[in-house]
Amino acid sequence: SLSAPGGVSLTVPQPNINATVAQNILLSVEYSCRGVATVEWKHVSSWGTTRIVEWKSGNYVNISAVYKDRVTIFENGSIQLLNVGMRDAGYYLVTVTEEYGTNTYGAIIVNVYEIIYEDIHFVAVLFAFLAAVSAILICFMWLCNKSLHLFQKTTHKLSASTTEEIELETIEC
């Protein structure tokens, strides 16, 4: 007797991934089903839909030519994508089909950012900050210098007047 069609369940722990160019990303899923399942991953973006990989547990693995050297598959249904580029941004759809025909879907959104601009922005902000600090220090040094000159002038005047007074006193005698 045939066993009754068993359900297939799929969980996606991280449905949103932010990556930077040249990073490796893990599209993590976890599926469970009674029978043997077929896992298929597709990438959907503004450039169209591309089939990445399809495999049947312990049976066959079929990786698209485009992804040949960039994809690693895992028994739990997850895939690792190496060296991501801007074109890898978009939706990743996973379909797990059980041998009885029941299937379940999961989706992961991947955002890919250029790191160069962030670095330039950081350097620009740092440079502006350092320029402001040095300007403040220069002003502070200038003020210190000015007040020091004033202080020296006043002390000089004081010492001059006291010597005059001493001289006057000696004359009076």
Automatic annotation (TrEMBL):
The chain crosses the membrane at residues 120-143. Its main location: membrane. It is found in: Membrane. One of its GO terms (biological process) is positive regulation of excitatory synapse assembly. The keyword Signal applies. GO terms for cellular component: axon; dendrite; plasma membrane. The keyword Glycoprotein applies. Gene3D superfamilies: Immunoglobulins. Keywords: Glycoprotein, Membrane, Signal, Transmembrane, Transmembrane helix. PANTHER family: SIGNALING LYMPHOCYTIC ACTIVATION MOLECULE, V-SET AND TRANSMEMBRANE DOMAIN-CONTAINING PROTEIN 5. This is VSTM5 protein. It comes from Asarcornis scutulata.
